[in-house]
Recover the amino acids of this structure.
């Protein structure tokens, strides 16, 4: 298989630096050391600097300053959009947060950001995530069974739907901390809700376990990719 | 388990040092709690389970100690043949000692002076105006009866009769009495009055009231009187009884008081405790020792007048004798600790624990006495038997003196840091010793490096490299296929496969460099499939690094770099809009007006200048949205702000970490297809079919997982074997 990197000199240098940094990171297996710290600082500095440059170039210049004053950037083909002065002013107000005495001025911009963000996020979460998920949870036990399915598949669908409904309600009941009194009704209610909530907690732990397994798998994948990169950089023929 | 005496940490059997604090455990021995049987280290003073005092320390024999160091055993003090100094004895013990000493002689007048009148003392005397003169005299004569002893010459020994111990009293004039009282006066006299009244004609039994007849019929304590019933039969015709209404109130109270109530019992028993220490007063209150033993030898009390509870305390007829003595009566009544030890038993006690103590069940010890358990000696069988002191002979008692006298090691008080001696304030400002040096990197590395980690690292590297050369055929053969394709990946593939040529696909590269290893195989396989199907691609990103990643992936799909042939031209087949500011507002802006969000591509050239985006006004021209992201939140934003408002079909490729959180959107049909991690990319490569790096990476992951599982299993087995060997 051909290597991922093109055979140019700049790429050769880049490949050498990448391989060197990879080895430096791997030296952490011997504990905290100078090589590890150098690689760490290079990574953090590069990412931060790249993000700042991209944000300034793409957002601040590309979407604010150039449309607002295209003549300043030799863009005669663009008409100035003065409405962008308002976002610019709001952005400048954020600088007042640097001084505590005048920080209240920046609250205007912060309020605008939080208001717009919260409004969009709440409406989106409610209509885009919560309600569809609730609709999906409120299923019949036989939802999904189609003609031609074997009995085993049908039983599997019924079990899956049952676990979906019972597990979802159980997770909700897992956060039900109120306990009833000593009367018969309260004890009967606790006798149902408490075991159901315990089942919901079990579902939660299974979910957490799956998430953790996914995290471990992600890191293993990164490691494999680095090993394959090193083998490829060393021109080892791999499939 | 061995419990650390310092921190109480449970250590395994055989441990020489505490796992927590390092305390030497070699000298720690276990002691069974006499109450609950729980094992505790001998250095503990109380049981960790029930709180019972546990201190075990063999006391030296009293004979081995010098006089001034002999342990004080309060029980032995009053009875011992070698009396302790009087200042160490409570008042009641001194009185009891004096009584015993006096009773060595035939004269039995002493009990009268030392024994308080118990029962009648709690009775409210009648008012003087209700009493006739003779009764007032009687009342006056009996009041100080236990304070002013009668003359020995007047008092006859109790061998004659228990009621003939004082001078006869002249009966009152009959005309001074009411008729009913004149008939009953001898019978209802208080015990001391009976003793003072001399001989009394017994009443006929049919004339006695029911309560008095029962008293007279019951066996009388012989120790008090050899003929107890005779004197009673001489008593009154008197007790003619008499309706309840005929009795004055104080007599009713007196009659009622003959039946012991809880209140009277408590008041009677509490009477002598005022002179005792509190702990001994509690002991006395439950033991039938002091009050009862003192009530018994009073002798002057008419047996018939005694309440049942008091008569039960009297010596049995078998042990009674005509000669009253402390040895015959009071000692029988005394508890074990008050009895003087027999010479033979005393000798045996010095050589071995008292055998009789084994027969005493621990259950007879009341709860309050359990709490007072002072100490003892542990026998070979693990039982603890008190050999001396208050609880001599009782199993489960431990000596109290050693536990109180011994100082705890943990109770050492450190001087307060602010305590500065006078004139020593200058030392506060003196130069302090330098702090311990901070570990340098080299020292940290030496302390954190472990060879086992290096071995594990080498193993994982070997497993990852092995997959680059050797596939995993045996795993594939087990399942009958190279890689099993799951339904989300199948839906993902079928959605793309169903697109017509020349449709535009919006692809979002919302992931950073840290997850490229997972998501690059997905994006490469997907874009390659799209290009092969002649679809058009508009790439953008809401992550700063995503624009560059998108361009890198698109560059890698150049047919010059692949083995496939398909149309590939920037601006015609694909375009990269680069990074756009993130957030819900940006996504909503994309849904409403894409050109407002991204008027130009990543090079800054307007979109209108590119053939692909020349007429692009909204998302209506977009066939499918494909989002590659390492964040479930970002996918959720796409669903909420773009998919829901526009109704566009949406696919997603996510990392393995975000997969479980994104899967519900696929289940709810908000996402038409889903790829999860490298496994999803490998499944897609199987479907495409143009296998790339995803399949090989998946094989490497499988090797590593197998290696890690083997290491974990071997580690568990090794740990179990080492624990068993230990």
């Amino acid at each position: 298989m051909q290597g991922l990197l093109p055979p140019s000199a700049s790429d050769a240098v880049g490949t050498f630096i990448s391989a060197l940094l990879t080895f430096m990171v791997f030296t952490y297996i011997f504990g905290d050391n100078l090589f590890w710290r150098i690689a760490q600082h290079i990574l953090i500095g590069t990412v931060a600097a790249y993000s700042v440059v991209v944000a300034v170039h793409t957002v601040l210049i590309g979407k604010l300053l150039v449309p607002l004053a295209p003549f300043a950037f030799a863009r005669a083909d663009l008409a100035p959009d003065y409405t962008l002065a308002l976002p610019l002013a709001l952005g400048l107000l954020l600088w007042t947060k640097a001084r505590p005495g005048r920080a209240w001025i920046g609250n205007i911009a912060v309020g605008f950001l939080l208001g717009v963000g919260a409004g969009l996020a709440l409406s989106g979460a409610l209509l885009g995530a919560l309600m569809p998920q609730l609709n999906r949870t409120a299923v019949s036990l036989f939802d999904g069974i189609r003609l031609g399915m074997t009995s085993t598949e049908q039983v599997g669908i019924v079990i899956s739907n049952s676990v979906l409904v019972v597990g979802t309600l159980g997770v909700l009941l897992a956060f039900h901390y109120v306990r009833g009194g000593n009367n018969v009704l309260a004890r009967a209610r606790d006798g149902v809700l408490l075991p159901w909530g315990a089942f919901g907690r079990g579902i939660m732990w299974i979910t957490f376990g799956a998430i953790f397994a996914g995290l471990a798998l992600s890191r293993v994948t990164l490691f494999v990719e680095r090993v394959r990169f090193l083998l490829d950089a060393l021109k080892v023929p791999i499939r | 388990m061995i419990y650390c005496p310092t921190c109480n940490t449970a250590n395994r059997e055989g441990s020489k040092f505490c796992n927590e604090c390092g305390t030497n455990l070699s000298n720690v021995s276990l002691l069974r709690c006499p109450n609950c049987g729980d094992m505790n280290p001998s250095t503990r003073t109380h049981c960790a389970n029930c709180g019972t005092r546990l201190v075990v320390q063999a006391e030296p024999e009293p004979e081995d100690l010098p006089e001034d160091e002999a342990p004080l055993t309060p029980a032995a003090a009053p009875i011992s043949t070698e009396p302790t100094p009087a200042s160490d004895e409570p008042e009641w013990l001194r009185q009891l000692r004096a009584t015993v000493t006096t009773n060595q002689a035939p004269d039995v007048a002493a009990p009268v002076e030392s024994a308080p009148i118990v029962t009648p003392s709690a009775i409210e005397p009648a008012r003087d105006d209700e009493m006739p003169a003779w009764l007032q005299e009687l009342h006056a004569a009996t009041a100080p009866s236990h304070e002013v002893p009668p003359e020995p010459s007047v008092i006859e020994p109790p061998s004659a009769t228990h009621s003939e111990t004082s001078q006869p009293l002249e009966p009152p004039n009959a005309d001074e009495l009411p008729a009913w009282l004149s008939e009953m006066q001898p019978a209802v006299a208080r015990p001391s009055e009976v003793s003072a009244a001399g001989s009394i004609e017994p009443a006929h039994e049919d004339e006695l009231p029911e309560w008095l007849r029962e008293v007279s019929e019951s066996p009388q304590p012989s120790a008090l009187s050899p003929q107890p019933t005779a004197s009673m039969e001489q008593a009154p015709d008197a007790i003619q009884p008499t309706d309840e209404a005929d009795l004055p109130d104080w007599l009713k109270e007196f009659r009622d008081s003959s039946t012991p109530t809880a209140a009277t019992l408590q008041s009677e028993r509490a009477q002598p405790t005022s002179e005792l220490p509190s702990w001994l007063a509690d002991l006395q209150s439950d033991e039938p020792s002091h009050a009862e033993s003192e009530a018994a030898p009073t002798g002057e009390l008419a047996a018939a007048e005694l309440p049942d509870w008091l008569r039960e305390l009297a010596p049995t007829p078998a042990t009674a004798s005509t000669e009253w003595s402390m040895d015959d009566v009071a000692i029988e009544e005394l508890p074990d600790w008050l009895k003087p030890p027999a010479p033979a038993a005393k000798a045996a006690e010095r050589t071995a624990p008292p055998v009789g103590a084994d027969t005493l069940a621990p259950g007879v010890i009341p709860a309050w006495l359990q709490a007072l358990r002072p100490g003892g000696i542990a026998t070979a069988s693990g039982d603890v038997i008190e050999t001396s002191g208050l609880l001599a002979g009782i199993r489960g008692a431990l000596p109290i003196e050693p536990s109180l006298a011994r100082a705890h090691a943990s109770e050492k008080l450190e001087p307060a840091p602010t305590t500065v001696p006078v004139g020593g304030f200058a030392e506060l400002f003196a130069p302090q010793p330098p702090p311990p040096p901070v570990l340098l990197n080299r020292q940290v590395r030496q302390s954190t490096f472990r060879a086992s980690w290096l071995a594990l690292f080498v193993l994982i590297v070997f497993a990852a490299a092995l997959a680059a050369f050797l596939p995993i055929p045996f795993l594939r053969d087990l399942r009958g296929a190279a890689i099993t394709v799951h339904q989300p990946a199948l839906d993902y593939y079928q959605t793309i496969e169903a697109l017509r040529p020349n449709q535009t696909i919006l692809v979002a590269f919302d992931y950073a460099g840290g997850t490229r290893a997972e998501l690059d195989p997905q994006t490469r396989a997907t874009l390659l499939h799209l290009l092969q199907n002649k679809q058009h691609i508009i790439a953008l990103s809401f992550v700063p690094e995503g624009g560059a990643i998108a361009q890198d992936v698109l560059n890698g799909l150049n047919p010059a770099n692949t083995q496939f042939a398909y149309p590939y031209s920037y601006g015609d087949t694909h375009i990269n809009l680069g990074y756009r500011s993130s957030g819900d507002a940006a996504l909503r802006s994309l849904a409403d007006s894409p050109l407002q969000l991204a008027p130009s591509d990543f090079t800054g050239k307007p979109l209108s200048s590119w053939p692909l985006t020349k007429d692009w006004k909204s998302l209506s021209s977009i066939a499918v949205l494909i989002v590659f992201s390492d964040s479930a939140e970002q996918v959720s934003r796409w669903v909420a702000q773009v998919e829901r408002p526009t109704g566009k079909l949406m696919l997603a490729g996510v990392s393995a970490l975000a997969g479980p959180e994104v899967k519900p959107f696929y289940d709810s049909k908000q996402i038409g297809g889903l790829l999860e991690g490298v496994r999803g990319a490998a499944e897609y490569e199987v479907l495409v079919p143009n296998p790339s790096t995803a399949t090989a990476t998946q094989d490497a992951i499988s090797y590593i997982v197998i290696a890690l599982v083997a290491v974990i299993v071997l580690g568990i087995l090794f740990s179990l074997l080492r624990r068993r060997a230990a």
